[in-house]
Amino acid sequence: MLNEEENSLIARVGKGTPMGELMRRYWLPALVSSELEADGDPLRLMLLGEKLLAFRDSDGRIGVIDHLCPHRCASLFYGRNEQGGIRCVYHGWKFDVAGNCLDMPNVPEPQQSFKERVKAPAYNVAERNGVVWVYMGDGEAPPLPEIPYNLLPPERLNITLLQRECNWLQALEGDIDGSHVDFLHGGSRGVADYPPDDPRRFGALNRAPEYEVTETDWGTLYGAKRAADPGESYWRIGQFIFPFWTVTPSSPFGAGAGVRAWVPMDDTHVMLFTFRRREITAPQIGADRVGFRDKGSEFLPNTTDWYGRFRMPINRENDHGLDRKLQREVNYTGVMGIIEQDHAITESMGPIAERTKEHLVVSDHMIAVTRRRLIEAARKLRDQGAAPPCSEDPSLYANVEGGYCLAPAADSIWDVYNAQFAAFQAAGGLNREVVSAPLKLEVR
Ligand code: FES
Ligand SMILES: [Fe+2]
Question: Domain 27-135 in CATH: superfamily?
Answer without folding.
Answer: Rieske [2Fe-2S] iron-sulphur domain (2.102.10.10)
